[in-house]
Amino acid sequence: MFLKVQDLCAGYGRIQALHNVSIEAEKGSIVTLIGSNGAGKSTFMMCLSGVLRPTSGTIEFDGRFIHGLHPEKIVAAGLSQCPEGRRVWPKMTVKENLEMGGISVKDPGVVSERLDMAFSNFPILAERRNQLAGSLSGGEQQMLAIARALMSGPKLLLLDEPSLGLAPIIVEKVVEIIKKIRDGGTTVILVEQNAFMALSIADYAYVLETGHVVLSGKGSDLLKDDSVRKSYLGV
Amino acid sequence: MMLTVFLQQTLNGIILGCIYALIALGLSLIFGILETANFAHGEFYMIGAFIGFFSTSLLGLPFFISILVAMAGMGLLGAVIERVVFRPIVGKPLINSMLLSFGLSTALANLALFLFKPDPRKIESGLSEFHFDVCGIFMTAERLSILVLCVVLVCLLSWFIQYTKTGKSMRAIAQDRTAAELAGINVRRIYSVTFAISGALAAAAGTMVGAMFYVQPDMGLAVTLKSFIIITLGGIGQIKGVIFAAILIGLVESLGGGFISYAYKDAYPFILMLLLFILKPEGLAGGGK
Amino acid sequence: MNKTAKLGIISAAAVLFLILPHLFTMDYYLHIFVMSEIYAVLAMSLALIVGFSGQVSMGHAAFYGVGAYVSAILSTRLGMSFWVNFWISGLAAGLISYLTGRLVLRLRGHVLAITTAFFCVLVNVIMVNWIPVTNGPMGIVGIPRPTPINLFGLKIAFETRMHYYYLGLLFVVASAWFLYRITTSRLGDNLIGVRENEELAKSLGIDTMKNKVFAFTVGGAFAGLAGSFYAHYILFISPVTFTIGESINVLVMVIFGGMSTLLGPVFGAILLSILPEFLRMAGALRLIIYGVSLICFIIWLPQGVWGSLKNWWINKKNSDSAAG
Fold first, then answer.
1. By the CB < 8 Å criterion, does C128 face chain B?
2. Would you say residue C28 lies in a domain?
3. Residue A213 lies in a domain
4. Do A72 and B289 touch (CB under 8 A)?
5. Chain C partners of B96 at a C-beta cutoff of 8 Å?
6. Are strands A3-12 and A15-25 parallel, antiparallel or unpaired?
7. Fold for domain B2-279?
8. Contacts of B282 in chain C (CB under 8 A)
9. A·B CB contacts under 8 A
C-alpha cells in the first residue's frame, strides 16, 4: 500500500473530529473521500500534511511513517496538498506563487523546468504570470493552486474540494486535469462534496460521516449504492 | 528666524522618524508574520545600543563597524529569544504573547539596570565635530550619515522582502500561513529569521540614538509604546505606511519638543494617538500584508 | 472527588479564612489580606472579560479608578455614606464600561488591547488634569471610613483592619457567587463560545457583540465596586494608583491563577499580593525574577496555577478510572 492510514484520531481542543479513521490508497490510483460539511474530510487532509497533529493512529506513506513530522518534511517526502478554498497568496504574482510552491526543491533547474511545464499545462496561468494572484477568477485560482501543489513534484497529491464554487464547465476541466495527473503517475486523494464528480473518476472511495468511515468500496460500486445515492447524490 | 527653527526641527524630526521606522518595521514584521506581540522590542533596541556602546568604548571599533556588531549581536540574540521564549506559544491567543513579552521586557530592562547601572552613556561616533550650515540649518556629519544609513537599511529590507526567497517566504506566511506550510516552507526557520532581522534593525536604531543622544537601561519602554502607535497608524505589514507613520511621529515629537515644550516631548505621540482614537475609533484596524 | 470531600475542603477553607486575622494579627499582614481581597474581586471581574469571553482588556484599572473617584468625591464633597456610594460607584463604572465596550469591542486582538490600553491612559490623564473635580495629581484626601453599622445589636465601626478584612471577605464571596452564577448560565456558555471561536458563535446565531459588551460591563462594574472599597479603606486616592501598570498587574494575577476559571484569579490575586513581599529581600533582582517567572508561567502553565492543578486532577481521575 502506497498510503496506509490506521485508526487516526484527531481534533481541535475538546472537539474530536476524527474517530479511528482507516484509509488506504494504492499507488497510481485516485481515492476519494466524500461526505457532507463537518464530516472531518479537511481535518483528515491536514493530518496527512502534518499541519494538524493527530492524537493517535499512524500514517504510513511510501514505506515510512510520516505522522508527527513537520509539514515541510512531508512535502519533501513527496506528499503535497492543494488545500480547500485554494489559498493562493493574493499579494504575490502567479509566477511567485508557483515558485514558492517549489521551494522544497533544491535544484533551481528542476524548478525552472516545472515552472515551464506548469505554464504549458495551464496556459491561462502563463498568460497571467505577472498578475497578482488575488485578481484571478475562482477557476483560475484553482488552476494556480493545483499547479502550485505540483511544483514540488509530489508522488501523492491531496486535493481538497477542488470543485468548490466553480462553474460546471470549469469543474469538467478540473476533472480532466486530475485524470491527467493520475495518468502521469501521481497518486491522488480527492476530497469532495460533489460526490457524483468524485465517484465518477475514483478507483476507490470512502464515505466519511461525523469523523467515522461508514462505507468504502470501488468508486463505480458506490455510485450505484442506494444509501450513497440517497444521501449524497440527491437521488 | 522662526522659519529656521521650524526647518531645523523638521529635519531633526525626519531623522528621528527614520530611526523610528527601523524599529517599527521590525516590530511590524514580528506582528505580521508570527502574529505575536513583542512588548520587549524596546529592549532589543536598548541591548543593541549597549552593544554599540561597548564596541566603541571597550573595543575601540569605529562607529559604523560598531553598528554592524550591534546588529549581528542582537540579531543572534533575537533568534535565540524566538526559539526559547516565543516559539512555545506560537498559535496561542494574543494575550499569551503580550504577557510573555511584558515579562521579558521587565526582565531584560532590569537586568540591564542591574548590570550597567542607570547612568546614561554616550556613544562617540567621531563624526560629531564635523558640521556644516545649509541656509542657517545646522547639520552634523554624524546626523547626516545616520540618515543615510537609515535609508540604506530600509531599502535593503525592502529589497530583501520583495526579491529574496526568504523574504517571499516571509510574505507568504504573513498572507496565509497554512498555505505556506503546505507548500513546504519551513515556517519555524522563518520565525527565527524574522526575529533576527527585527533585532538587528532595532539594534542599529539603538546605536544611532546612542550616538545622537544617549544610552541607558530604561530607554526601551517609550520606544516600545511609540512603535506600537506607529504600526497601528501605518498598518501591519505595510512598509510604506509604517515608514510614513514613523516619520510623522518623529516630526510630531521634534516639532512639539521644539515649539511647545521639550520636557513633554515623549507625550506628543500619545496625544496624537488619543486624538485619533477619539476622532476615529473604528479606524484603527491594521491593514493588509 | 465526591461531594462530601468537596464540602469538607470548602468548609475547612471557610474556617481558615474566617479565623485568619486572629492568626496573623499584625497590621502589616492584615493590610496584605485586605489588598488581596480587593485584587481578588478585580481579578475575578477581569477574568470574566478576558478569560470567559476572550477579549483582551488592558483598561481594567480605569474602571477601578472611576469607582474609587466617584466614591471619594461623593463622600468628601457631598458627605454621602460609603454604603450608598459603593453602589453608585459600581453603577458609574458599569455605565462607563458599557459605553466604552459598545465603542471598542468591535475591534479584536491586539488592536483591542492597544485601544483599551490607551483608554486607560486617557482616563488617567483626565484624573491628573481635571483638577476642579479630581484634585489632580494631589489626589483626594480625607475619605471617611464606612459609617458604623448595627449588626445583631453590635455596633461595628470600621476602625481596625480586621473589620475591613471581614467586610472584604463578604465582598469577595458575594462577588464570586454573582459572577459564578453568570458564568454557569447560558450567558456563560455563550461567552465561552465567543472566546473559543467567535465566527462559529456568530454563525450559530449568538449575538456576540451583545454578549461581549455584557461581560465587559459587568466586569467594569465590579472593578468600580472594588475601587469604592479601596477608596474607603486607604482613605486617600491619587491617579498614580490607576495606571496601565495596575491593569497589567491584575492581568498577570488572572493569568497566574488561571484565566478560564473564577477561583483561579482569586488564587492569583492572593499569590501575587503575598509573593512580592518575599521578593523584597532579593532587592534589585526582584523585578528580574518577576519577569522571568512570568515568562515561565506563560510557557509552562498557560492555564495558570489553578487551571493546571484542575487539569492534573482531572487527568489523574481519568487514568485512575481507566486503570481500575
1. no
2. yes
3. yes
4. no
5. 298, 302
6. antiparallel
7. ABC transporter involved in vitamin B12 uptake, BtuC (1.10.3470)
8. 106-107
9. 68
B partners (3+ CB pairs within 8 A) are A, C
Q: What is the residue-level pLDDT of chain B in tens, covering all 289 positions?
A: 677 788 888 888 999 999 999 999 999 999 999 988 899 999 999 999 999 999 999 998 899 999 999 999 999 999 999 999 999 988 777 778 888 898 899 899 999 999 998 888 888 887 777 777 777 777 888 888 899 999 999 999 999 999 999 999 999 999 999 999 999 999 999 999 999 999 999 999 999 999 988 999 988 888 888 898 888 888 877 888 899 999 998 998 888 777 766 655 666 766 676 666 656 544 444 433 3
Q: Quick one: residue B254, left, alpha or beta (phi over 0 = left, psi -120 to 50 = alpha)?
A: alpha
Does C2 fall in a domain? no
Interface check C98 vs B, CB under 8 A: no
Chain-centroid distance of CA C224 in Å reads 10
Is A211 within 8 Å of A17 (Cβ atoms)?
yes
Instruction: Report the alpha-carbon distance of residue C215 to residue B288 in Å, rounded.
Output: 30
SS (H, E, C) B111-134: HHHHHHCCCCECCCCCCCCCEEEE
Chain B residue numbers with beta carbons less than 8 Å from the beta carbon of C298 are 89, 96, 99-100, 103
Question: What's the domain range around A181?
Answer: 3-86+156-232
* Interchain contact B121–A (C-beta under 8 A): no
Tell me the per-residue pLDDT of C97-122, one tens digit each, with 9 for 90 and over.
Answer: 999 988 888 777 667 887 788 788 88
* C292-308 tens-digit pLDDT: 988 888 888 766 665 66
> Residues of A near B (CB-CB distance < 8 A)?
49-51, 70-72, 75-76, 80-81, 83, 87-92, 96, 99-101, 103-104, 148-149, 152
What is the Cα–Cα distance from B175 to C246, expressed in whole angstroms? 36
CATH number at residue A76: 3.40.50.300
On whether the pTM is more than 0.90, the answer is: no
Q: Does residue C230 belong to any structural domain of this protein? A: yes
Chains touching A (at least 3 CB pairs under 8 A) are B
Pairing of strands A204-209, A30-34: parallel
